[in-house]
Amino acid sequence: MVKNNYFGDTKFDKAYFTGKSSCGYPGGYTKENLLNHDYDYNDFAAVAKKISQLGVRTYFEIGCARGYLMEELLKLGVKVKGWDVSEYIIKKASKKVKPFIEIKDISEIKNLPDKSFDLVHVSTVLGYAPLKKLDYYLKEIKRIAKKFVIVYSGTPEDAPEENSIRLINKPDDWWNKKFSKHFALVDLNWYLWKPD
To answer: 9 φ, ψ to 5°?
Structure first.
């Protein structure tokens, strides 16, 4: 279990991932449901292929949930590692990917070596971080990434159900300006950046 209360009173538990909470995933966090909604990166096989074509051989995801994308990357020979704060959702990961997922939060990023992974993927997690820690986490993400970063955060417009639990509720333009202070843009449609 994550020892600190990083996300305050937010519970990323069964209710959150089964659609029984006022926030989270209506209909549940399953591949089928994600494909039926307008979530980013929901065609996991296609995204994994594109990542592999970038020459990525090592991949790290913070906020990986069930590790759907990691599982597809494993099929392509990519070495993967993932962290999530939800013990509930990690238990739901497939047997193929579960050994590569740990219950950890982003505050533990400081323990990873420099340039540890070809690609570091941080999806929506940063919106739950305290604003005063945001630049620190972005610097740490940059430090551990060799080639690429995929980073995005939910906004009040695209995920209003999360507004009550996110600590940073800012529009896409604000996030993109913040990211551009730490990374070089490669493809905004893909949320793809370089750590240089």
So the answer is: -90, 0
pLDDT for position 189:
85
User: So what's the pLDDT on residue 111?
Assistant: 97
9 pLDDT tier (thresholds 50, 70, 90): very low
d(CA 189, CA 153) in angstroms, rounded, equals: 13
The domain segmentation of the chain, as residue ranges, is 41-194
- List Cα–Cα distances, 13 to 76, 78, 100, in angstroms: 30, 29, 20
User: Span 41-194: which CATH code?
Assistant: 3.40.50.150
* pLDDT tens digits, 14-35: 656 666 566 665 665 566 655 6
Q: pLDDT per residue over 77-133, tens digit each?
A: 999 999 998 887 888 888 999 999 999 999 999 999 999 999 999 988 999 899 999
* DSSP per residue, 4-53: S-TTTT---SHHHHHT-SSSS-TT-S-HHHHHHTT-TT--HHHHHHHHHH
Please give the model's pTM, rounded to 2 decimal places. Answer: 0.85
Q: Contact at 8 Å (CB) between 169 and 156?
A: yes
- Read out DSSP for 50-119? HHHHTT--EEEEES-TT-HHHHHHHHTT-EEEEEES-HHHHHTS-TTTGGGEEE--GGGGGGSPTT-EEE
- State the Rg of the chain over Cα: 16
